[in-house]
Amino acid sequence: MIVLTAEGEPPGVMSTGVPIANCAFGEGxxxxxxxxxxxxxxxxxxxxxxx
Length: 51
Hints:
Layout: E1 2-3, E2 12-13, E3 20-26, E4 31-36, E5 40-44
Antiparallel strand pairs: 1-2, 3-4, 4-5
């Protein structure tokens, strides 16, 4: 999965090992939730990293 900033720059790339079906930011941008076929992942992010 590649996450891009508002300027289209990739601050990071993460490998989950499985295709991601859906994702969403929560907790004011502090958490990225990822949903796959057999798992739900919660990844902490830096608040305000997008700009």
